[in-house]
Design goal:
Low-confidence stretches: 6-41, 666-713
Protein name: DNA-binding beta-propeller fold protein YncE
Oligomer: single chain
Structural class: mainly beta
CATH class of the largest domain: Mainly Beta
CATH topology of the largest domain: Methylamine Dehydrogenase, Chain H
Strand content: over 45%
GO molecular function: DNA binding
Keywords: DNA-binding, Membrane, Signal, Transmembrane, Transmembrane helix
Mean pLDDT: 86
Number of domains: 4
Length: 713
Amino acid sequence: MPRAHRRPQTTTAGRLTAFTAAATLSLGLLGMGTAVAAPAPGPTLLTSSTATAVASTLDIRAQTGQWSLALGSIDASRNRLYIAVAYSPSQVVQVDLSSGVATLIPLGGSFAPVDTAVSPRDGTVYVSHNSGHEQGISVLDPAQTYTDASLPPVISSGLTGNPYLLDVGNDGRVYALHVNQHTISVIGASTSPDRLNVVQTLTDLNSHDGYMAIDNDRDRLYVVSPVSNTLTVIDTNAVPAAVLGVIPLATSPVGVGVNAQTGQVLITSSATNSVSWLTVANDQQSAVVTRTESLVALPTGASSTSQLQSISVRADGTTFVVANVYPSNQVRSQVTVIPPVVSAATPVTGITVGYGANGGILDPRAGGTLYVPNGSQGTVSEISDVTLSAYATTSELGSPSSMQASLTRSDARKITGFVEFADSSTAVLGSAPVDAAGSASVTLTAQPVGSRSFTASFTPLRGTRISATGSETTTTAASTTAFALSAASVIEGGSATATLTVTGNAGVGATGPYTFTTAAGDVLASGTLTDGKATATFQAPPAGTTSLVAHFAGDASYSASDSEAQNLVVTARVPDATTPTESGAVGGPARVSVSGFLPWEDVAVTLHSDPISLGTIKTDGIGSGTLTFVVPTVTPGSHRIVAVGVTSGRVTEVPFTVTPAVGTGSGSPAGGSESALASTGFELAANLWLCALLVLAGFGTVAVAARRTRSIR
């Protein structure tokens, strides 16, 4: 990962300013509920917005008492940040990035540390001391604990001047730039026997008052000088390291950086307040400018002596340029953020940080946080991509509803602050702190059924306010439907009563429609609830055990629901048949009544034992009916009338005696005229009986049909 440097500017301590989030209005004052920290968002992500901003600030001075912070480096494998303390006594700050806890490591002496570098081989830390009489480079073992009685070793022999800026190559060799001597001292790798020795000196580098950046992806070290207006290219893979070329520059450079993805070299110019992207030729003797972007203008009150401090390029191509703004105890420093592609949608932006910024320290890991030591203040500004997400939440009527949002940093570290929530008319509904999980939520009093949008906003410590739109939806409340039967069993053809209740948490009684059915879906009763209750009386289903269910269709407050099934036992009636008289004469009228059959069932009636059909009875709603018939011509004597239900198969019978026709029988007198009269009289009587039977039969049929029709209605 490339690393860029600019000399730090050490000044007197500036005023310590407390950074706070934008003021917000407590929801409790609005009578809408209370603001609470939300659990991890479970609702659906609706929209999100991302901005590069100061996500947090490390207060080194509050933790250690030290404030004059210089340059530093990252140990990604140990999650540590090292920053040189440019003040006496000589110390370096070690920050545990997982906790934000800062500790001081003593280096000994009163010389002023300036820069740090970490070996990619084993995490050895190097600290340069830029002091005329105590020049040197401290070498720290990351596994050791140092005290005033046990200090880290210092390399001083072999150095050609005051070491200033430091970089470490892939092979572990350390490069120390001596800005006034035009030289670089090369120290042996921490894993080699020469770990405390200068193994090479690169001279005549035109590096006066210069800066350098290393590209370990391509084994190149770049050194620029604003005095000679040159870019020197050094091969860090060669042993010894070798100068490959010196490239003249059109403008006076005040900083250098490298894009690790493309290999391009970036140069800043104070004269034009811009940064340019250079593609170095293969012979390392020339470079072509492929892109130039203007930096954000310095803030009001900035002195002309303000200086650009460093260039850092994140893996996604985002470029950060740190400017130390003077007077550093009165005007905040500034970081220009240049997106990979500049457009109207993604412009160049500026972020103010603390006072006396001494460059940027870019974390090479995912997220690429830029740590900016504020040398006049004793703080470190953490610049990261901050994403605010708003969610679509759902609650039931009668239950509290909520608006939810979350805040995340691109480096996955914790973020603090408040999220403000406003409705569609921009009226503030409340604010909530961001909890440890990065979430914030405002709980509202119960809302009516429907959907409402809201805007969640976050104002970072430094940077652009970001907003995202979410929604809160209140649905009808869940309902519970239940019923109780008046009896667990009824007789076939009878009726049953069910009492229905529908309950829920909407705060009102249910009023929607219901149906009461068999499990097969046959509707037994229907109606409308009143205050969550209803009573339904229905005719019992056919004999047997029937599973019954109550269905609530829902209303404006409650959603639909079904009850649990209950069984109703319907006891079948015992089929029976009766006759008004136990006998009937051949050709004469007779009547038979049946009961205990299915409602509206056809019952076939026959005279046995020939058998002879007497007709069909259509039962009424309780399974009963009557048939009037003419006694057929059969042998007089004992017979049976048998009734069989066509649908149910139920069978019943009744004894019936057939007697001879009226006016006939053995012993009747002989004689033609008497016989004719008797016959005539019999025939006349039979015909009269038949007519009467037909009339009665027709009347009975109409009566049965009328009864059925009335029942169906």
